[in-house]
């Protein structure tokens, strides 16, 4: 079977640009920047690996870091509903700037919306 995955449709290079732009927006966001490291190089590298597999590409994240267990990995950080919304707004802006088929963007955003809500682990 050679079905095209969302990863195939966005492509490695555009996914990499998307993630880099996303973390630029995160570092400028007053709700998010306080809980992220100052240097987002390693965070972006892991996020590229994660999103590659999340969108049906090779399992780059799991190969290096094991099972994602994203909710557990986020427990050290206070993720409020407001922070989840800010995270999604940064992702929306980054996606809007990328040159990808609209249906693919909408599909990605919908899945990330679900995942972001699942990360909320504290009230405001
Ligand atoms: C790591 C915040 C949602 C995927 C992190 C880190 C923070 C964070 C502070 C640690 C960064 C570091 O130390 O390098 C948030 C907030 C979210 C959110 C506030 C709002 C809901 C998501 C979502 C995904 C995601 C929806 C899925 C695409 C990741 C990954 C890592 C990470 C893959 C790296 C984990 C590792 O260290 O191996 N996030 N995150 N996050 N986040 Fe999120």
Structure, explained:
- InterPro entries: GlbO/GLB3-like, Globin-like_sf, Globin/Proto, Hemoglobin_trunc.
- Keywords: Heme, Iron, Metal-binding, Transport.
- Belongs to the truncated hemoglobin family. Group II subfamily.
- This is Globin.
- It comes from Evansella alkalicola.
- There is one protein chain.
- With 124 residues, this protein is an all-alpha fold.
- It has a single domain (6-119), classed as Globins (Globin-like, Orthogonal Bundle).
- The protein is built from seven helices and no strands.
- The site of protoporphyrin IX containing FE (HEM) has 22 residues, from helix 3, helix 5, helix 6 and helix 7.
- Residues 32, 35-37, 42-43, 46-47, 50, 65, 70, 73-74, 77, 79, 83-84, 87, 112, 115-116, 119 line the site of protoporphyrin IX containing FE.
How are the SSEs ordered, and which strands pair?
Layout: H1 6-10, H2 12-27, H3 41-54, H4 60-65, H5 70-74, H6 81-97, H7 102-119
Helix pairs in contact: 2-3, 2-6, 6-7
Bound molecules: protoporphyrin IX containing FE.
Protoporphyrin IX containing FE binds next to helix 3, helix 5, helix 6 and helix 7.
Short description:
The chain has 124 residues and is an all-alpha fold. It has helices spanning 6-10, 12-27, 41-54, 60-65, 70-74, 81-97, 102-119.
Q: In the residues, how many domains can be counted?
A: 1
- Per CATH, the architecture is Orthogonal Bundle
Largest sheet: none
Helix-strand makeup class: mainly alpha
- The residue ranges in which pLDDT falls below 50 over 5 or more consecutive positions are none
Helix and strand string, N-terminal first?
A: HHHHHHH
Q: Mind telling me the CATH superfamily name? A: Globins
Cα-to-Cα separation, first versus last residue? 47 Å
Give the overall shape.
globular
The helix fraction, in percent, is: 55-70%
Mean pLDDT: 97
Rg value? 14 Å
Percentage of β-strand residues: under 5%
The number of helices is 7
* Beta strands, count: 0
The CATH topology label is Globin-like
CATH class: Mainly Alpha
Present as ligands are:
protoporphyrin IX containing FE
């Amino acid at each position: 079977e050679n079905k095209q995955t969302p990863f195939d449709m966005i492509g490695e290079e555009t996914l990499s640009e998307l993630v880099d732009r996303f973390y630029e927006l995160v570092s400028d966001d007053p709700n998010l920047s306080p809980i992220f490291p100052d240097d987002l190089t390693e965070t972006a590298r892991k996020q590229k690996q994660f999103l590659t597999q999340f969108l049906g590409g090779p399992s780059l994240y799991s190969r290096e870091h094991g099972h994602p267990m994203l909710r557990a990995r986020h427990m050290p950080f206070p993720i409020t509903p407001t922070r989840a919304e800010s995270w999604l707004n940064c992702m929306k802006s980054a996606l809007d700037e990328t040159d990808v088929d609209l249906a693919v963007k909408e599909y990605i955003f919908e899945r990330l919306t679900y995942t972001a809500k699942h990360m909320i682990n504290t009230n405001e």
